[in-house]
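Example (one chain per record):
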Amino acid sequence: MPARERPRRRFGLTAAVTASLLFAPALAAAQPDLVDPEEELREEALEIARRAFAEQQRKNYVEADRLYRQAYCRYPDPQTVFNLATVARSRGEVQSAAELFTLYLELDPNGPLSGDARVILGKLGVKGTLTSASIACAKRPTPTSIDPVDEPDPPVTAKPIDPTPPPPPPAPRASTGGGALRWVGLATTIVGLGAAGGGVYFGLEAQRHSDNITNNTGPWTPELLAEQQLGEDAERNQIILLSAGGVATVAGVIMMIVGWPDDDERPRGGVAVTPLVQPGVGGLVLSGGF
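Predicted structure:
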């Protein structure tokens, strides 16, 4: 009986080993790849340092300084500090270079570049006092930080569509050109009123000369003849200016009326100017509503 059971146990052991060999690759594939976060930061800093070295070779020291500091803040490698010190030395910043070389020696006193750092410090003749905390860095990224899970946006409730279409915009009014005509009429009216005022002045002068002749009781003298001629000239000028001023004023008023805007464009309040021209008399009549 025991002799019969021994092969069965051997078969069971062999089946277990075979099953473990078959499922081992699947189990290994199911395990996530374990990446060292610190090593990942170091690789990123190394890539930034390579870019900084390329800028340093091009003598673009400002950009090289910025990239070296960025690489150091990503991963504090002492060799990055040494390269940063060489950039400061190339820029002629002796004190800054001495402090950075001193920082390198504080971080890695027995490093591969420690001898070179001490030799350069001796040539600079400046004592550096910088410590590792003196390089300003923002907060280092946390290797184990997990990005927050994006929460779904709240559902948006669609607003009902109003079936009534909006009213069409009002059609633009065609310009009739009345504005220019109105201004021309105003200018013509002003000129006409000025001419009428001149006619009034010459009418008064003619009246004055006539009174001087009428009040004379003596014989006619050359002075009276000259007075008569001046009166006649003033009367002639009065007639011409009053006539021309009246015509210009009336024409100007007509142009202003024609060029005045429509009722919907006309202001509610205003003052109307009406000329009053008669022989020997000139004036204005103001009327309107407020």
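Caption: Residues 24 and 47 are 37 Å apart (CA to CA).
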